[in-house]
Amino acid sequence: MPSELIPQIIYGAVLLFVLGSVGALWYRMGGIQRDLGRLEANVSGTQASLNEKTASLNEKIDATQASLNERIDGVQASLNEKIDGVQVSLNELTKTVAEMQLQMQRNHYQMMMAILSHSHRPDGRPTFDLPPDFEPTPSDAGD
Q1: What is the mean pLDDT of each run of 10 residues along the chain (143 residues)?
Q2: Is residue 140 in some structural domain?
Q3: What CA–CA distance (Å, rounded) separates 36 from 29?
Q4: How high is the pLDDT of residue 139?
Q5: 121 — phi, psi (to 5°)?
Q6: Could you identify which of 97, 107, 109, 127 might form a hypothetical disulfide with 119, taking C-beta atoms 3.0 to 4.6 angstroms apart as the criterion?
Q7: Residue of 45, 66, 63 lying closest to 55 (CA atoms)
Q8: Going along the chain, which residue ranges are E strands?
Q9: 3-state secondary structure of 97
Q10: Is 141 domain-assigned?
């Protein structure tokens, strides 16, 4: 009879060992599940925090971009005004230079006519010779 009990004892010991191992693994599995639950909570909390920070950064970026756009628009408007002012000044300067050149031509023509009218000899010849290329401009001839 003891020989018949040995396999049952061994079988019982193996079964007990397997059950103990399964129990230990089951206990470890519960700990792992608890740790996973905590980790999921931490991850979801971290994700929510990251989402909040991302939203905050996006708002700051949008505000900064809007501010920069306003500044750029202001600078552009100011530059446009200054460019318009410079263009007006250049147009006025061009007009003034043209008027001065015309007035200088008129003055020169009038001076030459005055000199010519007072510088003739009694016989009608001028007291000096005009350059051969001197001709008053047609617009000055009427003044």
Answers
A1: 75 84 84 83 82 92 94 93 94 93 88 71 62 61 47
A2: no
A3: 10
A4: 55
A5: -75, 165
A6: 127
A7: 63
A8: none
A9: helix
A10: no
Are the CB atoms for 139 and 99 separated by under 8 Å? no
* 74 in a structural domain: yes
- pLDDT attached to residue 4: 77
> Do 108 and 134 touch, CB atoms closer than 8 A?
no
- Coil vs helix vs strand at 126: strand
Q: Residue 42's pLDDT is what?
A: 80
Task: Tell me the CA end-to-end span of the chain in Å, nearest whole number.
Answer: 155
Overall domain count for the chain? 1
The whole domain housing 115 covers: 2-135
Give the pair of three-digit tokens for residue 1.
């009879």
Rounded to two decimals, the pTM is 0.43
**Token pair listed for 115:** 């000199």
Confidence at residue 49, expressed as pLDDT on a 0 to 100 scale: 86
Which pLDDT score, from 0 to 100, does residue 140 have?
Answer: 46
Reading phi first (left if > 0) and then psi (alpha if -120 to 50, else beta), residue 26 is in: alpha
Is 68 within a domain?
yes
